[in-house]
Design brief:
The complex is a heterodimer. Chain A is mainly alpha-helical. Chain A has one domain. Chain A contains eleven helices and no strands. In chain B, strands 5-6-7-3-8-9 form a six-stranded mixed β-sheet, with helices on both faces. A three-stranded antiparallel β-sheet of chain B has the order 2-1-4, with helices on one face. Chain B is of the alpha/beta class. The chains are: A mainly alpha, B alpha/beta. At the A-B interface, helix 1, helix 4 and helix 11 of A face strand 1 and helix 2 of B.
């Protein structure tokens, strides 16, 4: 059993590496893009919002950038992860592999790209932003919670997409909704007091707030809220894992034709 | 010979994608299949197109379970459908794809790293082994696929219409490698439309028609009955 787990783990990591490598090889600049792309992305944020917004309010610029970049990770990883299974039907028709593998590969590749963006953001923040704080050490915890949510959702949605293509369109619409609901553009203080509970019911709102707490306000994230988001992560992962196992030996005869 | 697998009243139903206001449509590729596989035997499977032969291979290969009936392996075995080049990534090199593919076929990464030179030699791809697979001709892709597939050594090998690949030289070589599988102690299942192949390689034959077993026995007898039915 252990050896089988090790093999599947190796497949996931080797395929993540292979996918990133094959993406890099498509470009003349190759691996440089892992640094260039995030720099361009953050650069554009700063340029556009720096001009558009009141330039006397650099805090809001940072507020926005931290939210945008972490949301981008969520959005990209999920939309690629949920297609991970369907795109590999031709392989799954020939080889009996666990259905969890391919969504994980796509999430993994998107996460690597995000880590590059985050690295650039941290450096910029250290020298030209709010500066370093020991609370940065809490960052991996918040990242782990978000990764868990992404993985759980990708497992669930990749099965749903396999049965119903419509899932993709519905998910895009829901993502758009949460893009506005998760507090990318406004801080929680702007939410009416009686709605704050509803606002934080959304784990993504909790995560965005936690990133800002750590990176911009130099304070620890609210442990109760982060714990609540972690429960979401665990619940989604458990549900996704169970669903993948449930359909494992029937998916390929139920969805291919 | 010990009993390896028993299939009892096995049926497989493919469901067609359902749309709103539409009745669900189903295709029963296998209806009620009863047969056994014994350890070490070479079983040939004949039947017309669309009678469920490939579905049977997928079933045995563990791609899915039957919709009804039971399929039971009596010992835990590594069963593998031989597929060539499935999962190759065009922008990766032959070497990288060999490792990737071998891992999908059940080998550990470490084992593949150890065997990759032998695969390179067997495939005779030379310098192209270090080139992206996108630069390969279709024959070269098949060569690489075959060389990797032969590395993984399953207990039960499932062959769907496949005996030897490549140009004249490689055809002889790959055919020889496959023939060796038939001579060893491994269990091999072969789907073929060439009666001669079944008769010369197999120890037993199964004729499937309309998702059911019509005849099961000595290759010579089964092929004779099958051929008679075609006339």
């Amino acid at each position: 059993m252990a050896s089988r787990f090790a093999r599947y783990r190796d497949i996931v990591f080797y395929r993540i590496w292979a996918q990133l490598k094959s993406e890099a090889r498509q470009n003349y600049l190759g691996y440089l893009w892992f640094a260039l792309e995030p720099m361009l992305m953050t650069g554009i944020f700063f340029l556009v919002f720096g001009f558009l917004l009141d330039s006397r309010k650099p805090e809001y610029l940072w507020f926005l950038t931290v939210g945008m970049i972490t949301w981008q990770w969520f959005d990209a990883a999920l939309s690629e992860g949920m297609m991970g299974l369907k795109m590999k039907f031709h392989i799954l028709m020939q080889m009996p592999l666990p259905k969890q593998i391919f969504p994980l590969v796509h999430v993994g590749a998107a996460t690597w790209r995000f880590i590059c963006v985050l690295a650039v953001l941290l450096v910029v923040n250290m020298f030209w932003g709010a500066g370093f704080s020991p609370y940065w050490l809490l960052l991996p915890m918040v990242l782990a919670v978000q990764l868990g949510i992404i993985i759980g959702l990708s497992w669930l949605l990749s099965i749903a997409v396999s049965y119903f293509d419509d899932t993709q369109k519905i998910t895009q619409a829901v993502m758009r909704l949460f893009f506005y609901l998760s507090g990318l553009f406004f801080s929680v203080e702007r939410v009416p007091a009686d709605l704050q509970v509803a606002f934080y019911a959304n784990p993504m709102a909790v995560l965005l707030q936690s990133y800002r707490d750590i990176l911009l306000y130099h304070r620890p994230p609210n442990p109760a809220l982060l714990g609540y988001a972690a429960l979401w992560a665990l619940g989604l992962m458990a549900a996704g894992w169970a669903l993948c196992n449930h359909v494992d030996k029937r998916l390929m005869r139920e969805v291919v034709v | 010979m010990s009993l390896l697998m028993t299939a009892k009243e096995v049926g497989v139903c493919y469901r067609l994608r359902k749309q709103m206001f539409q009745k669900p449509r189903e295709i029963w590729a296998l209806k009620s299949l009863n047969f056994e596989i014994f350890e070490g035997e070479k079983l040939g499977i004949v039947g017309r197109n669309g009678t469920g032969k490939s579905t049977l291979m997928k079933l045995l290969g563990g791609i899915f379970e039957p919709t009804r009936g039971t399929l039971k392996w009596h010992h835990k075995k590594h069963v593998q459908l031989l597929s060539l080049g499935v999962g190759f990534e065009g922008s990766l090199t032959g070497r990288e794809n060999a490792i990737l593919n071998g891992m999908l076929l059940g080998k550990s990464r470490k084992a593949m790293l150890e065997r990759v030179e032998a695969i390179k030699d067997y495939s005779e791809l030379g310098v192209f082994f270090e080139y992206p697979v996108n630069t390969y001709s279709s024959g070269m892709v098949v060569r690489l696929g075959f060389s990797v597939a032969m590395e993984s050594d399953p207990d039960v090998l499932l062959l769907d219409e496949l005996l030897g690949v490549g140009d004249a030289g490689f055809l002889t070589k790959s055919g020889k490698t496959l023939t060796e599988k038939f001579q060893g102690s491994k269990t091999v299942l072969l789907i073929s439309h060439d009666p001669g192949q079944i008769e010369s390689f197999c120890t037993r034959a199964l004729w499937i028609e309309g998702g059911m077993v019509v005849a099961d026995g000595k290759p010579k007898d089964v092929i004779a009955r099958y051929n008679a039915s075609l006339k």
